[in-house]
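thread: overnight batch results

M.L. [08:02]
morning all. the overnight job finished for the chain we discussed friday. pasting input first so we're all looking at the same thing
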Amino acid sequence: MSAKSVWLLLFVCASRLLIASAARTTVTSHIPRKAVASKGIASIGYSKRLHILEIEFVNGAVYRYLEVASSVHRELMAADSKARYYDRNIKGNYPSARVRPRVKQETD
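M.L. [08:03]
and the structure it wrote out:
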């Protein structure tokens, strides 16, 4: 097994432990995201090296999706409805971790 494969395996295992952990752990994002035209999604970023897709929603929440092929990122960016593509092809289909919770709206 190559060093890159071992590192990726360790990263995936660590990420899954993070997801399974009940404790609130801060995930720091270093993946640049680009703003997109969507009613539900504010910005999208992708790491080709790590195969991680990061999505910021209009409510302020940011989620990281693991083991995502670059073709899925390309299709998402090209989709007429990014929110619909996300619902049909990404949500629930990849291991994920919350990077930032949604921003609670203040009530008057």
